[in-house]
């Protein structure tokens, strides 16, 4: 594996970092659909297993396609090493499970992806690993939740679906002061908009399923960051098996080649549409990190390049109106994904977060009429027309 690119530019690194296993002078990296790799002789096999020489042995451990994806993500995030995983959740889970011991405690932001919440509340307690949730709106309270058992901090920023931000510089300093490992789920921002390792995070977790794939084809994940921590997690992954398939790694590495241009367009359209909807009489509020009305607008400008591909708004008329709005959309997709070329609308109160109490929903910024839009790459005029039309048709 050779990195051909050491540019200071994101796009060049994302495109010009390529596996050098070319045997037919192919320009685009081939797909290495092979379970295992051949040893030169018995001595070579011994040395490879003893980690005396590096190389691919078996695709559960490594493969040229996943190596290429990881190499690119390391350059883009500023990490020294990484692992590609079968899904985003395999990355979230393995990053913690590979480092934690029985008795350890995790401090996490309350505004977490649903399955990460299940890992912390339903799975880790089986092995004696506890957690505390900190309120994203009350940074002063975080320090008081750290105890002598606390080993790591896990956060997402911007959060889903609240689109609230954690101040990465502040959090990096807090982790450093208490000697804690800081893990950031950077799925919403992607390394193009934000690089948390710069602020003192130790590991980045991705669901590559979202903007990194960007076209709704594969499920995948990655863990990128500090070499020593990755080595421990690699041991865990090598023997428990959450490896990414070579095919998905190939798709995702190709996807990184267009991440910058796609994100520019996602963000440009999201800002324009969110700004226009702010003036709509049937909408109470719009939330988007790069709109001056966002309570953390200054922080967003400081730690993100653009505001991201998602915005939320609250339609007047509560849960019923929210559902009616979705039923009157003609172009936008109703589906459980985000970061696709196709614009997607979701109504968290009646779907993903319907099992929570009103108070629990309020804690993570979900009001009854809240709608989340993942802005795709269609022409922005067609997206806004569909939203405005559904707003009109859902009026009672
Ligand atoms: C989707 C998502 C995940 C989980 O990723 P999968 O690829 O679906 O396993 C984790 N965190 C965030 C913020 C997500 O949006």
Automatic annotation (TrEMBL):
Biological processes annotated in GO: 'de novo' L-methionine biosynthetic process; homocysteine biosynthetic process; transsulfuration
Signal peptide location: none
Metabolic or biological pathway, per its Swiss-Prot or TrEMBL entry: Amino-acid biosynthesis; L-methionine biosynthesis via de novo pathway; L-homocysteine from O-succinyl-L-homoserine: step 1/1
Function text: Catalyzes the formation of L-homocysteine from O-succinyl-L-homoserine (OSHS) and hydrogen sulfide.
Annotated Basic and acidic residues bias: 1-11
Protein's name according to its UniProt entry: O-succinylhomoserine sulfhydrylase
Catalytic activity annotation: O-succinyl-L-homoserine + hydrogen sulfide = L-homocysteine + succinate
Keywords assigned: Amino-acid biosynthesis, Aminotransferase, Methionine biosynthesis, Pyridoxal phosphate, Transferase
Annotated stretches, region: Disordered: 1-26
Homology family: Belongs to the trans-sulfuration enzymes family. MetZ subfamily.
Entry GO CC: cytoplasm
Enzyme class: transferase
InterPro entries hit by this protein: Cys/Met-Metab_PyrdxlP-dep_enz, O-succ-hSer_sulfhydrylase, PyrdxlP-dep_Trfase, PyrdxlP-dep_Trfase_major, PyrdxlP-dep_Trfase_small
Assembly and interaction partners: Homotetramer.
PTM-bearing positions, type N6-(pyridoxal phosphate)lysine: 210
Cofactor requirements of the protein: pyridoxal 5'-phosphate
EC number: 2.5.1.-
A Gene Ontology molecular function term of the record: pyridoxal phosphate binding
Name of a matching Pfam family: Cys_Met_Meta_PP
């Amino acid at each position: 594996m050779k990195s051909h690119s050491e540019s200071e530019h994101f796009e060049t690194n994302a495109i010009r970092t390529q596996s050098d296993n070319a045997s037919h002078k192919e320009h685009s990296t081939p797909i290495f659909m092979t379970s295992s790799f051949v040893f030169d002789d018995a001595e070579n096999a011994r040395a490879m297993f003893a980690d005396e020489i590096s190389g691919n042995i078996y695709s559960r451990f490594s493969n040229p396609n996943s190596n290429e994806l990881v190499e690119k993500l390391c350059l883009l995030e500023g990490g020294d090493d990484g692992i590609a995983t079968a899904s985003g959740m395999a990355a979230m889970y393995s990053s913690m499970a590979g480092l934690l011991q029985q008795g350890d405690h995790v401090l996490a932001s309350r505004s977490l992806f649903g399955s990460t919440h299940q890992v912390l509340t339903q799975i880790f307690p089986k092995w004696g690993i506890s957690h505390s949730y900190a309120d994203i709106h009350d940074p002063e309270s975080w320090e008081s939740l750290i105890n002598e058992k606390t080993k790591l901090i896990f956060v997402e920023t911007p959060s889903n679906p609240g689109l609230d931000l954690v101040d990465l510089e502040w959090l990096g300093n807090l982790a450093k002061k208490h000697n804690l490992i800081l893990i950031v789920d950077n799925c919403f921002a992607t390394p193009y908009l934000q690089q948390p390792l710069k602020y003192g995070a130790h590991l980045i977790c991705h669901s590559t399923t979202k903007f990194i794939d960007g076209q709704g084809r594969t499920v995948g994940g990655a863990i990128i960051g500090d070499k020593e921590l990755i080595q421990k997690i690699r041991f865990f992954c090598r023997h428990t098996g959450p490896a990414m398939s070579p095919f998905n790694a190939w798709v995702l590495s190709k996807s990184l080649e267009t991440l910058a241009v796609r994100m520019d367009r996602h963000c440009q359209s999201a800002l324009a549409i969110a700004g226009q909807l702010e003036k709509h009489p049937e909408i109470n509020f719009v939330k988007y990190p790069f709109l001056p009305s966002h309570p953390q607008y200054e922080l967003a400008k400081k730690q993100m390049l653009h505001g991201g591909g998602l915005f939320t708004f609250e339609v007047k008329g509560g849960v019923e109106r929210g559902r009616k709005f979705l039923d009157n959309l003609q172009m936008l997709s109703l589906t459980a994904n985000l970061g696709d070329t196709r614009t997607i609308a979701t109504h968290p109160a009646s779907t993903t977060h319907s099992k929570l109490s009103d108070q629990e929903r309020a804690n993570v910024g979900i009001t009854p009429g809240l709608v989340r839009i993942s802005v795709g790459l269609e022409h922005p005029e067609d997206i806004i027309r569909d939203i405005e039309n559904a707003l009109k048709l859902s009026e009672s």
